[in-house]
Amino acid sequence: MNNAYLPHEAEIVERIQEAPDIFTLRLQFTDPYQQASYSFAPGQFNMLYLHGVGEVPISIVSDPDNANLYDHTIRVVGRVTRAMATLQAGDFIGVRGPYGRGWPMAEAEGRDVLLITGGLGCAPVVSVINFMQQRRDRFARLIIMQGVKHANDLIWREQYEGWAQLPNTQILLAANETTPHWAFDKGFVTDLLDKAIFEPDNAIAMLCGPEIMMQVASQRLLEHQVAADDIWLSMERNMHCAVGHCGHCQFGGQFICKDGPVFPLPAISRLLGVKGF
């Protein structure tokens, strides 16, 4: 019998420092069976466990086609992630997953795809970009919109340069606080919608980041005539078990870990911004 709470050992194949407090761990299971059987969908997450320290839910940012190696981009925000920041290539970590409902990639085929993210919220949609990059002919336009508080907070700068070269792809970046060398917009990511080139009746939007940003972005998308059913949000709550048993991530009548983290807007719109949810 499989134990849903038992992590499997994975080796850190590579560690990439993305920013002073942000790093990526490239992992591979040590068990050949786990290597061969593991698969995930864009938008899903793993629970990463560090012995003697604790466990945290982290989105998978790599392409599902190469599930033998999988990446997690992590921001140092607490005790567990601070300890994980000390890990190096050759170290080991516990992994269980993948969990949750991912992005609606099948529904997105043949359509304009808008990715609207804020802060490190871009991490859950990076796997979408990698997925589309390998299957670019299946989708129409790709619009990547990213907002950060300070220009220096932007990570994946080299990746953005590469993504900008993809066919039929538009990159829109904004920072609230800019530097003299910032070549993009100043302001909020939601202000960039007026510059985005897409067909509202053939568009699907995927949002991730601070909840208030997603609220505003959802409203702006509706004003641009994107259907509510075509607006998807990746929610974040304090997840412990990842299988819907502990109740820590309850969101109304649903659980973020099991029923999400990705939800269509109509399923959660009444709960957005409400204290206690």
Structure description:
This protein is an alpha/beta fold. The chain folds into 2 domains: 8-99, Elongation Factor Tu (Ef-tu), domain 3; 105-271, Rossmann fold. It is 20% helix and 32% strand. The protein contains 8 helices and 15 strands. Strand 8, helix 5 and strand 9 (169-177) form a beta-alpha-beta unit.
Keywords:
277 residues, alpha/beta, Elongation Factor Tu (Ef-tu), domain 3, Rossmann fold, 8 helices, 15 strands
Provide a quick synopsis of the model.
The chain is an alpha/beta fold and 277 residues long. It contains eight helices and 15 strands. A hairpin with a 2-residue loop joins β1 (8-19) and β2 (22-29).
Largest sheet: 7 strands, mixed
Spatial strand order of the main sheet: 10-9-8-7-11-12-15
Structural class: alpha/beta
- Looking at CATH, the homologous superfamily of the largest domain is Nucleotide-binding domain of ferredoxin-NADP reductase (FNR) module
Low-confidence spans: pLDDT under 50, at least 5 residues?
A: none
Could you tell me the radius of gyration in angstroms?
18 Å
CATH topology of the largest domain: Rossmann fold
Number of strands: 15
Give the N-terminus to C-terminus distance in angstroms: 34 Å
Please name the CATH architecture of the largest domain. 3-Layer(aba) Sandwich
* Approximate shape: globular
**H and E order:** EEHEEEHEHEHEHEEEHEEEHEH
Q: Determine the strand fraction and express it as a percent band.
A: 25-35%
SSE order and pairing:
Layout: E1 8-19, E2 22-29, H1 32-37, E3 45-50, E4 54-59, E5 70-75, H2 79-84, E6 92-99, H3 105-108, E7 112-118, H4 123-133, E8 142-150, H5 157-163, E9 169-177, E10 185-186, E11 203-208, H6 211-223, E12 231-234, E13 250-251, E14 254-255, H7 256-259, E15 262-264, H8 265-268
Parallel strand pairs: 7-8, 7-11, 8-9, 9-10, 11-12
Antiparallel strand pairs: 1-2, 1-6, 2-5, 3-4, 3-6, 12-15, 13-14
Binding site for [2Fe-2S] cluster: 241, 246, 249, 257
Keywords: 2Fe-2S, Iron, Iron-sulfur, Metal-binding
Domain FAD-binding FR-type: 5-105
